[in-house]
Amino acid sequence: MSDWNWHSAWPAPAKLNLFLHVVGRRADGYHLLQTVFRFVDHGDLLRFAPRADGEVVLATPLPGVPPESDLTVRAARLLQAATGCRDGVEIALEKRLPMGGGLGGGSSDAATVLLALNRLWGLGLPRARLQEVGLALGADVPIFVYGRNAFAEGVGEAFTPVALSSVWYVVLEPPVQVPTADIFRSPALRRDTPAIAATDWRPGVGGNDLQPIAVELYPAIAEYLGWLSAFAEARMTGSGACVFAEFATPAAAAAVLAALPAGWRGWVARGLPEHPLAGLGAP
Ligand SMILES: C[C@](O)(CO)[C@H](O)COP(=O)(O)OP(=O)(O)OC[C@H]1O[C@@H](n2ccc(N)nc2=O)[C@H](O)[C@@H]1O
Ligand SMILES: Nc1ncnc2c1ncn2[C@@H]1O[C@H](COP(=O)(O)OP(=O)(O)OP(=O)(O)O)[C@@H](O)[C@H]1O
């Protein structure tokens, strides 16, 4: 992927929060979290073409999102501003991840833009610098730049890599979009879960502190969790709405998906050992 090629698709995978605890709150209102991020092999795709006029143009605007606010456009402009780069780009986004789904879709798109344009514009910024640039766009952007499954702390920007086994997930999409800020603003949110050491985390440890709040606000999430729980332990990712459960084999996951009630949306994804762009040149 060293050259501009409109036909090369750059992946922007989803993440799952295998657990998510709110352990405190910063003076600016942002919440201190502990979470494990896991990448899965289902996500959006991006394509890029150079523009000589220096403009950043989104060829595929999303319904309800003005291009100026789209995280892909904002990421490209922020990279121009951070480096003084005068090159432009046309971006095409093939959206597969639901918005407000807790899968980090917009954040992953932004991270893939940063990684791709760092390469295509020949900027040579180190990954750590791209993570900083990404944090200005959203708390979930740095993990996608970092590129390894990780135990995360702070607002989700301080990472300890974790090795995760190869498993499959059934991910269901309740038909609601959850605004992340609404969940964090809830007076009912528990903000004092005791912190754990990264080395004490094992798969299965911990829950999602945001889940009771989201379930209360959006009964569809409770309904989907209830259905999936009949097959395996089910949990919400991020601030919702999507819910997931883990399976040891792709056949076991496919069998659950095959039983999905009519009209429900869901998919099976493999847990990845790392982000598909983790090996990309950025130091
Ligand atoms: C819930 C997670 O998805 C877990 O991975 C992330 O923490 C959310 O990350 P994100 O969607 O990138 O969120 P941002 O766009 O940075 O923040 C949206 C809003 O959520 C609240 N917010 C977000 C992250 C955080 N650690 N504490 C917060 O209180 C803030 O009100 C913020 O204005
Ligand atoms: N490229 C983009 N893709 C998705 N949403 C975008 C994009 N650009 C801007 N947005 C805005 O960001 C909001 C959150 O979208 P996103 O898909 O990142 O949510 P999410 O999956 O809940 O993320 P997180 O797990 O980070 O909370 C959307 O409702 C939309 O208004």
What does this entry look like structurally?
With 283 residues, the protein is α+β, with helices and mostly antiparallel strands. 27% of the residues lie in helices and 27% in strands. The chain has one domain: Ribosomal Protein S5, domain 2. The strands form 2 sheets. Strands 1, 2, 3, 4, 5 and 6 form a 6-stranded mixed beta sheet that branches. It has a 4-stranded antiparallel beta sheet with strand order 8-9-7-10, with helices on one face. Strand 3, helix 1 and strand 4 form a beta-alpha-beta unit. Helix 2 crosses helix 3 and helix 6 packs across helix 7. The radius of gyration is 19 Å and the shape is globular. The site of adenosine-5'-triphosphate (ATP) has 21 residues, from helix 1 and helix 2. Catalyzes the phosphorylation of the position 2 hydroxy group of 4-diphosphocytidyl-2C-methyl-D-erythritol. It holds the Pfam family GHMP_kinases_C. Belongs to the GHMP kinase family. IspE subfamily. GO terms for molecular function: 4-(cytidine 5'-diphospho)-2-C-methyl-D-erythritol kinase activity; ATP binding.
Key traits:
single chain; 283 residues; alpha+beta; Ribosomal Protein S5, domain 2; six-stranded mixed beta sheet; four-stranded antiparallel beta sheet; 8 helices; binds 4-diphosphocytidyl-2-C-methyl-D-erythritol; binds adenosine-5'-triphosphate; isoprene biosynthesis; GHMP_kinase_C_dom; nucleotide-binding; 4-diphosphocytidyl-2-C-methyl-D-erythritol kinase; GHMP_kinase_N_dom
Quick summary of this structure?
With 283 residues, the protein is α+β, with helices and mostly antiparallel strands.
